[in-house]
Amino acid sequence: MSELNQSQRDDLRTIAAMIVPASDEYKVPGADDPAIQADMLKTLGRDTAMVKQALDHLARLAGKPLAALDPARQEAVIKEFRATGGAATATLVRVVLQCYYRDDRVLRSLGLE
């Protein structure tokens, strides 16, 4: 399975920021941080097909790049995405969280090395 296309990468970055936004209070980046995104793309491996399936489903629901939607429409699309995305959506969320919580900056903020 080939890597993600630019549109899929853009939507992944947008949804990742919605899943885990940056926090000034805890001094941690969001899951859309370039280093975290690079880790996601580099380590997709066996999850690539499911993540692509989830991103394609998201694109169909949004009708255009997720970032191009106003916040209210983004929320509506994400709600439908969560409700109808099944295993592919669960895989995408797992990948985002897995890569986010192995970032050194995030681990340090949690008091872990």
Description of the structure:
The protein is mostly helical and 113 residues long. The protein contains six helices and no strands. The protein has helices at 6-19, 34-43, 48-62, 71-84, 86-100, 104-109. The longest helix has 15 residues, at 48-62. The radius of gyration is 14 Å and the shape is globular.
| Amount of helix | 55-70%
Structural class given helices, strands, pairing?
mainly alpha
Classify the beta-strand content into a percent band. Answer: under 5%
Taken from the alpha-carbon principal axes, the silhouette is globular
Give the distance, in angstroms, between the N- and C-terminal Cα atoms: 34 Å
Number of strands: 0
Offer a few descriptive terms.
globular, 113 residues, 6 helices, 65% helix, mainly alpha
Outline of the structure:
By secondary structure, the chain is mainly alpha-helical. It is built from 6 helices and no strands.
Helices and strands in order, then pairings?
Blueprint: H1 6-19, H2 34-43, H3 48-62, H4 71-84, H5 86-100, H6 104-109
Helix pairs in contact: 2-5, 3-4, 3-5
